[in-house]
Amino acid sequence: MEVLQVVSVAAAALVCGGGLIFGVVKRVNEWAYVSSLGRQRAALLPPGDMGWPLVGQMWAFFRAFKFGRPDSFLARFISRFGRTGIYKTFIFGSPSIIVCTPETCKRVLTDDQHFIPGYPKATSKLMGNRSFHGISPAEHKRLRRLTAAPINGLEALTLFVSKIEDILGPSMEKWTESGQPVALMTEMNKVTYMVITNILFGANVDYDMQKMESLFYDLAQGLISIPINFPGCTYHKALKARRELVKILRANLDERRRVKNKKERAIEEKDVLDLLMEVEDEDGEKLDEETIIDVSLMFLLAGHETSAHATMWAAIFLKEHPEILQKLKKEQEEIIRRRPPTQKGLTLKEMRQMNYLSMVVDETLRRGNLSFAVFREATADVDIDGYLVPRGWRVVVYLRAIHVDPENYSKPEEFNPSRWEQTVKAKAGTFLPFGGGSKLCPGMDLAKLEMSIFLHHFVLHYDMERLNPNSPMVYLPGPRPSDHCLVNFKRNH
């Protein structure tokens, strides 16, 4: 018994001593980041936890997202420090300020003078120096102006409708004819990838599509990884994928330049890459090759990953709520009924008449929470709600918290498209699936268009049954069932 008591006392002492040491280490770590600000400025920082040396709160972040409890990460800050809506921490390799209320998020996203893109090293490196993630505010404004029309203009979206239908229709039929279960997430990734490559490169793409999909998958996995460039690490694999993709895009540009005496093609025959090569600013300056490549990679990645995830979740939510599915189906049947008998396929005008479908799409984006955050960097000391955001610190605009907060949405866990009826005015800053301000995601309209066209055909002609409705969730880089939503996909009887 005495031996057991001694062992127990020793164990308790080790635990207490270890806890004391860990506490001291964390305090020293916080002092290392905060002391450089000076006593007066440091006193104005918001409450929070800087975590451990070098890694900060990254282990806590990955633990929450990897083990199916993504909301627990921010919940720990709220429970410890109160609902201040702003917290200090160290995450993604930088001392950071987390903002997570509509007011604080809106303030950061709309203040271009004091907040510039400040993405983690892995994201900035993988997306490229000339993508929207890594350029100055003036360059961002110029580049966005030059690239908006080819991807989001009215003329472009009108042309995209038929392109999307021509790819989506045969794909959905193929799923039904196989007679085998299909992974909806995987198949939608293939479809949205074919759509964005068709839009960017044209219909006659001779790339190894399977290889390209694999490269983009590796690239996407590395965007929020720890930037360790060592074989076997996610970031190393993503860098390798980027190099391969850049090589493919550069060869494509070289080939286009080598083609001489080519007749000028009509606008409807041109792809986005043609337009990016031709566009000029007010001084007659064209985009350089590095910019074209980085913007193309950004369009290719964002143009299929987000759309595929969102479309999968829309189908899941509709199947879980048959009354909503039936209401949407009635709207789509009415669209078809009003259509002239000679018309083949959807038109952009029809798409804009689908009011309930638009609400389903917005509710999917809110409830699905596809992107947990966007990132900025403070260019000067900024006061937010009486707290200091120090110059040079990263600001994590925590979108996920906005969309699931009961103070912003009644019963936020429910899938309820009717909450978006025109009589209901959403509070500013409470709906940010594509970010906000001047840096709103440039592919937003295309993503919504792809979702809408799929849902139009899905509710009218198809049905699906999930084989593993209780499949565990994976939350990085985007939320999805671990089985990639395995379903029996079939035509309606």
UniProtKB/TrEMBL annotation:
Its cofactor is heme. InterPro entries: Cyt_P450 (IPR001128), Cyt_P450_CS (IPR017972), Cyt_P450_E_grp-I (IPR002401), Cyt_P450_sf (IPR036396). Pfam families: p450 (PF00067). This is Uncharacterized protein. Keywords: Heme, Iron, Membrane, Metal-binding, Monooxygenase, Oxidoreductase, Transmembrane, Transmembrane helix. Coiled coil: none annotated. Belongs to the cytochrome P450 family. It comes from the Eukaryota. Heme binds at residue 441. The chain crosses the membrane at residues 6-25. It is found in: Membrane. GO terms for cellular component: membrane. One of its GO terms (molecular function) is monooxygenase activity. It is a single-pass membrane protein.
